[in-house]
Amino acid sequence: MMNRLIPIFVGAIAILAFATLMLVIIPGAQIRDQAPTAGLVDYSPQQLAGRQQYINQGCVYCHSQQPRAAGQTLADMAKGWGPAPTASDFAFDRPHQLGTMRTGPDLLNVGARLPSRDWHLTHLYQPRAIFDWSIMPAYSYLFERKKAAEPGDVVVRLPPEYQPQGEVVVATKDALDLVAYLQGLNRTYQGGPAGERVRDEGYALSKGEQQ
Amino acid sequence: MKKTDSRNRPAQGPVDESFDPWEQVRPVPLFVLAVVFALAFWGVLTYISEYNAQRRGLEQKAEANLAAPVRPVPPAAVASLAQAPGVANLDAATLQMVAVGKGQAWSCASCHGEAGEGNLNTPRLAGQPAEYLHKQLQDFKSGLRHNESMAFVARALSDEDMAKLAAYYAGIDLRTTTAPTLGGDLERGRVIAEKGDWKTDVPSCFSCHGMSGEGVAPGFPALAGQKPDYIFAQLAAWRGGERKNSPQELMDGIARRMSFEDMRAVADYLGSLPPRPSAPPLQAAISTSTPASTPASTPKL
Predict the structure, then answer these.
(1) Per-residue confidence at B178, pLDDT binned at 50, 70, 90?
(2) Which single residue of A19, A74, B76, B160 has CA 20 to 30 Å from B269?
């Protein structure tokens, strides 16, 4: 028995080392020096703070940030989720928030299709004020209720049924940061021909084959 | 018993006394061991160095961000949108709705852009026929057209507000062009837009929406320069029964007869056309046009 322990141990390490090499080290070496896509702008300090909120609130558990390519499905395109990203579109995301769950919509281009700060504030405070069927949690703890808005306060626009009696709902810094991050999520810039060449087209026939 | 048997058998060479079928001794070659450990060691070192590099990178970025907190905005694009003819042509009440909002309604410009240019599946409003825009707002309010965010906005608007907003966006002459974004077959899109596909009973887009897709008041919206993602999303919505406010269910049937690849192609083609001012109402267009210029494919309405 003792004789077989070492081969098992060595085999396990070999498999782990091989997997690490193929799945971590080689892909890491391939993308570590990739420049950000032309048109991609780094996050501002406020957006970085909002990104931290995005992580803290666990948005990634329900929202992905990776629309699928047209060659895989046209469903994401029909929802207006925008083009499939390339690796260099995530150059400033460390760590990325790709996500795997699609309980909610994909958010990689939410800043392009829903650029309204006020929409996001209403939606974060009470998603069911807009979508009565929404199952998203209400992030009302990112907001304050006040008797009257002070100068500089951002008041949330609410329908009468969600408006507290005699009070206004005001966004906290956390809510404003998070919305700034969401507004900045926009990978719809034209990456130029170089960007298009590496864009994932899924299993679609290559352009040469189509012709 | 065993002893007598072995004595009677012919000699078969020396017998290994320690032979045991279940305990084979096969040491792993030292070379393989060395390679495996070297790989594992390399992996750990790489991980540590990557981790440190990332941390340093983040720290440097935070410092750089503190040093230069203002994000550069491309000034040319902003200026050209704000200077489009018609953008400034509005009264105070309309300006309030467009730029600030009204009651529970968010401002129009906060999603549709400063000049109503749109993005992705948020449509371009600039230059659409006023009657068309007005009807869509009414349909959002009544639920005939299904979109929760627009229904939220439309509930806060009076019919007079809707008419004012529709007239305002109809009056914006925004000539910015959109590049194709869907990767559709543009040549196929051109054929469908200009000629249609009569094998599947799909009429040409231009036969109703104007000879350059510029839109025909009151009912047919402009397609030239509309966002490809929006056109595709609407075709898909008609096909799936999600959008049902087309007059006489025209678009419902057309979209059901189109393949998804054709929708993608035509959306990309139409979106990349240069936008033009929308045409006068259909009756006027027919009465003023000569028979030679009337397209043969125009269906009877």
Answers:
(1) confident
(2) B76
Beta bridge partners of B279: B216
Cα atoms in the Cβ-side hemisphere of radius 13 Å centred on B25: 3
Our count of domains for chain B comes to: 2
Chain B residue closest to A110 (CA)? B120
Q: Assess contact for A98 and A66: CB atoms under 8 A.
A: yes
> Which residues lie closer than 8 Å to B15 by C-beta, 6 or more apart?
none
Q: Which residue has the tokens 């650029």?
A: A115
B90: containing domain: 84-170
In chain B, what residues touch A81 (CB-CB under 8 Å)? 120
Domain ranges of chain A: 43-189
* Inter-chain CB proximity B111 and A114 less than 8 Å: yes
- What is the pTM for the complete model shown? 0.76
Helix or strand or coil: residue A169? Answer: strand
Partners of B110 on chain A (C-beta within 8 Å) are: 115-119
Start-to-end Cα distance in chain A: 62
**pLDDT score recorded for residue B5:** 56
How many CA atoms are closer than 13 Å to the CA of B17, on its beta-carbon side?
0
Tell me B278's DSSP state: P
- Do the Cβ atoms of A42 and B61 come within 8 Å? yes
> Does B196 lie in the same domain as B158?
no
For the stretch A160-210, pLDDT in tens is 888 888 889 999 999 999 999 999 998 887 655 444 555 655 554 444 444
Closest CA to B111 of B127, B122, B95, B126: B122
Shortest Cα–Cα distance, B204 to chain A (Å): 22
ipTM greater than 0.90, yes or no? Answer: no
Instruction: Give the gap in angstroms from C-alpha A101 to the nearest C-alpha of chain B.
Output: 22
Domain end, chosen from B137, B170, B203, is at B170
- Chain centre distance of CA A64: 6
Nearest to B46 among A10, A25, A132 (CB): A25
Chain B: closest CA distance from residue A59 (Å) = 21
Domain containing residue B102: CATH number: 1.10.760.10
Identify whether B232 is part of a domain: yes
Give the H/E segment covering residue A144: strand A143-146
Last residue of a domain, one of B170, B200, B230: B170
| Chain A partners within 8 Å of B105 (Cβ) | 157
In this predicted model, what pLDDT tens digit does every residue of B16-41 receive, in sequence order?
A: 777 666 666 677 788 888 998 999 99
Which member of A20, A77, A122 has the closest CB to residue B229?
A77
The shortest CB-CB distance from B104 to any of A6, A77, A158 is to A158
CA distance B6 to chain A (A): 30
Quickly name the fold that domain A43-189 has.
Answer: Cytochrome Bc1 Complex; Chain D, domain 2 (1.10.760)
Task: Give the residue on A whose Cα is nearest the Cα of B68.
Answer: A44
